[in-house]
């Protein structure tokens, strides 16, 4: 079977997808039509093939998208579109993450923001879209300790009231802004109340102390972890902590290459962790902004690192073990994978 067709038909698990970074060209088109007065063009919301940007420029892109997505209607449309696009790409289980925002001009509150994402998930369920979706409430590190604490409190409420849809916390945002020590108590509180934690760690160099501190919690998964290992300026001590706690890494190849934290695909730290046999999950990060999808990311990993179709199948299957939803969901997904497994891998 041709590689791209194999990757598309492969059942997949997506664990690292920021809602507003995942908005497709088509949805951006609809948003631009809703808000022509903003004079926003497509070139301002996505980084095309062969293009690269500094990390700082990437964060400017999010600001533009946030201007386009500032009401309940927008969030509902964006979330339903994103969920359906992931499903169309063969994703069977998706953990979406997003930073609740308030917008005085549209009356949007953080609580309504989360409720609207939940409504979109429920709507897709009603329409029998073939995908199980959960939500991680994101903390933007830029906003400091108090906002982090408030976000955790909101997430705790939804953990109890959302029927298993809100299951965790994400720590993200511009990694060059703020310090993890200010967020430690909020993250610890989240963990203590049963929320799962996925933290962007060592996305840029020189964050050794922050990473070391946050690894002590420990998080349930790590986003990127680009500069954890010694060859990238991290340390064996950090690697040991990750390995001893068996913390899976969410790896987003195109995001790192286009955002220029990794020089080229061949130098991506996927190789380091995969060869070690450490749990890794291929993810998109921001499929809209980086103009990719999960099938393309799997194909890129396979061609760059010489993975057979069988190895790719294993990689997608093993991702089930690292989801935040309970064991009963893992069992359902494992059954789905068994049903879809090509004869030659059985
Ligand atoms: P939102 O949370 O749904 O609005 O998605 C966009 C947000 O996700 C950005 O404003 C950042 O806070 C976060 N984000 C997206 N990609 C990255 C990344 O690569 N590193 C850190 N934060 C990110
Ligand atoms: Zn991310």
CATH superfamily: Metal-dependent hydrolases
Overall shape: it is globular
| Spatial separation of the terminal alpha carbons | 17 Å
- Poorly predicted tracts of residues: none
Q: Let me know the number of strands.
A: 8
Number of helices: 14
The chain-level mean pLDDT equals 97
Rg, Cα atoms, Å = 19 Å
Order of helices and strands: HEHHHEHEHEHEHEHEHHEHHH
Main structural class: alpha/beta
Explain what this protein looks like in three dimensions.
The protein has a single domain (3-339), classed as Metal-dependent hydrolases (TIM Barrel, Alpha-Beta Barrel). With 346 residues, the protein is α/β, with parallel strands linked by helices. The protein is 46% helix and 14% strand. The protein contains 14 helices and eight strands. The protein is globular and about 55 Å long. An eight-stranded parallel β-sheet has the order 1-2-3-4-5-6-7-8. Helix 1 (3-9) crosses helix 12 (294-305), helix 4 packs across helix 5 (110-126) and helix 6 packs parallel to helix 7. 46% of the residues are buried. Bound molecules: inosinic acid and zinc ion. Zinc ion binds next to strand 1.
Short description:
The protein is α/β, with parallel strands linked by helices and 346 residues long. The protein has 14 helices and 8 strands. The chain has one domain: Metal-dependent hydrolases (TIM Barrel, Alpha-Beta Barrel).
């Amino acid at each position: 079977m041709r590689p791209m067709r194999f990757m598309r038909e492969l059942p997949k698990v997506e664990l690292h997808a920021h809602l507003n970074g995942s908005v497709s060209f088509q949805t951006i088109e609809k948003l631009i039509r809703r808000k022509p007065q903003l004079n926003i063009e497509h070139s301002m919301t996505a980084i095309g093939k062969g293009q690269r940007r500094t990390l700082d420029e990437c964060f400017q892109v999010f600001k533009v998208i946030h201007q386009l997505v500032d009401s309940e209607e927008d969030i509902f449309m964006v979330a339903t579109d994103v969920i359906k696009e992931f499903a169309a790409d063969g994703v069977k289980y998706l953990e979406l993450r997003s930073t609740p925002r308030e917008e005085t001009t549209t009356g949007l509150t953080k609580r309504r923001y989360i409720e609207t994402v939940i409504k979109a998930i429920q709507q897709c369920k009603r329409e029998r879209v073939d995908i199980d979706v959960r939500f991680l409430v994101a903390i933007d590190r830029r906003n400091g300790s108090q906002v982090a604490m408030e976000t955790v409190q909101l997430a705790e409420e939804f953990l109890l009231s959302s029927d298993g849809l809100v299951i965790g916390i994400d720590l993200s945002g511009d990694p060059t802004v703020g310090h993890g020590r200010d967020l430690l108590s909020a993250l610890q509180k989240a963990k203590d109340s049963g929320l799962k934690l996925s933290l962007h760690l060592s996305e840029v160099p020189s964050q050794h102390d922050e990473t070391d501190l946050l690894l002590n919690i420990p998080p349930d998964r790590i986003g990127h972890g680009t500069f954890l290992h010694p060859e990238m300026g991290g340390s064996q001590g950090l690697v040991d902590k990750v390995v001893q706690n068996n913390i899976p890494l969410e790896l987003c190849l195109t995001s790192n290459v286009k955002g220029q934290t990794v020089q080229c695909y061949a130098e991506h730290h996927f190789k380091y962790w995969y060869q070690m046999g450490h749990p890794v999950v291929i993810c998109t990060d921001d499929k809209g902004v980086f103009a990719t999808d999960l099938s393309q990311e799997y194909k890129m990993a396979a061609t760059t690192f010489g993975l057979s179709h069988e190895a790719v199948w294993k990689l997608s299957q093993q991702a089930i073990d690292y989801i935040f939803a309970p064991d009963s969901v893992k069992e359902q997904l494992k059954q789905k994978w068994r049903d879809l497994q090509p004869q030659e891998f059985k």
